[in-house]
Structure formats: structure tokens, C-alpha cells
């Protein structure tokens, strides 16, 4: 028996609507993928500007200018509110913030540096000081995807889409993207495997010079095992870092090597912050 014309028309309409829906989804996915922040951040890496490698001092004026103009995003205006996923969360850290707050006697308007800043909110060790004590500082995040998320949090701090160098000079490295466990990989720059991206690294001291800020009240360092290497790049006689929290669980040299090195600089461990599921394994250092 022949189907009624209205049923045939309805079936065709449904098929047409389904076709439009599929096209819309495909267009959305294409646009989303084409606008991923990774490509935007990758464009910051200048192919050959002559300012990478062992011949470049971490105090080179050209390097400092490069960081200032291309790798530092200033804080938003004071009247721009934070854009947090959970604005009611009192302290996003795993306890580090409260220890640091006590050690610095509830200091207001201090200056922090957080490297391994993730998205600027999840397990941030510095957000508490910013929200409740009026601090500002520098948030460094090497994973371009995390950095893009961090920009939208409107943190009242400088942001940098870079990583801290493991040497006393700048370099481009292959960075393994893995959300909260991203790290400088053992592959050379240019490694094309999925999940790896080239990222520009600068010594910490170069960042401090670019910000005209060699006094740091609190330095939070969590770079998945490269902490000791980063610390060894710092010319300690030229900076004043009062309190540090440094993750020790992934370092290949072991936590004793980390503690011994900091002790040689006049720092001591005043507390160890440990949390279940390896969410925190940090030494808190202060200068004697």
C-alpha cells in the first residue's frame, strides 16, 4: 500500500533536519579545534631571534625586553572580578597557603611567584593570598591549554605562557601536556608526537628582572620533578626569596638532595605539607 504523502514529507523533513544537525556539529567541532589556544601560544615562539642557547646570559637586556613585550600579560584592572569556577572555596591549596600565611605573619600586599600554576584556580597555592591579603605576583604555566584557561580567571597577577628554564639560559623545549602533570620532556624541541608542544623557557631570574622585582615573599614551585634543576639556575646572592614551597616527590635526585641544596643556601625546612593521592608533597623552606 502506498504511504500517505504527508508521511513521506515528514520523513524527508526529519532526514533534512538530521543532516543539518550533523553539519552544525561538524562545523562547531572544526571551529573549536581551529581556535584552540595551543596555536596562539605556539606563535609566541620566535623561530630564530638569536635569543636562545648557552651564549645568552639570563641578564641579557635583549632577553629581558623580549620577556616584557611578548611573554608577560599584565593583571586586569582592579575592578575586573575574579572569574572562578568555585568562588566560594576558601583555600584552593592543599595547606601550603595557610603555612605561608603564618610564616609571613599575615602579610598584606606581598608578591608571589607560582610556577606550575595550572589554570590559576585548581590547587593554586597563591590564590588565597591574592583574594584575602591583597597580594599580586607572577603565574607561570607552560602548558598552552592550561594557560588559556588561566587567562579567563582574571587573576590579579602577571601571567606568562612559558616555563622555567632548567639551565641558566633561555631555550625552547618539548613540553608534555598532561593537565596537572605537564612537564618539560626529554625529547628535543620539534617533537611532533601528539600531546607534546614546543614551549619557550626562561630562567627565573630573567623573569624577575623583566618585572623589576627581585624580592619575592613566596615562591611556589611544582614542575613535576625538575624543581632542583630550576633552583640551581637562580643567582641567590641577587634575589631575596623569603618563603618557598617546593614539591619533592618526583625529583630523580630524591628529596634529601633538595633539602641539602637549600640548606647550603641558608634555608631550612619548617614544615612538610603532604596530602593523600599525591596532591601535595611539598617542603616549606624559610631562610635562617
Automatic annotation (TrEMBL):
Cellular component per GO, a single term: endoplasmic reticulum membrane
Q: Where is the signal peptide?
A: 1-32
Keywords linked to the UniProt accession = Signal
Q: Which Pfam families match?
A: Methyltransf_21
Ranges for domain Methyltransferase FkbM come to 114-269
Swiss-Prot/TrEMBL GO biological process terms: endoplasmic reticulum to Golgi vesicle-mediated transport; endosomal transport
Q: Which domain of life is it from?
A: Eukaryota
Query: What is the recorded name of this protein?
Result: Methyltransferase FkbM domain-containing protein
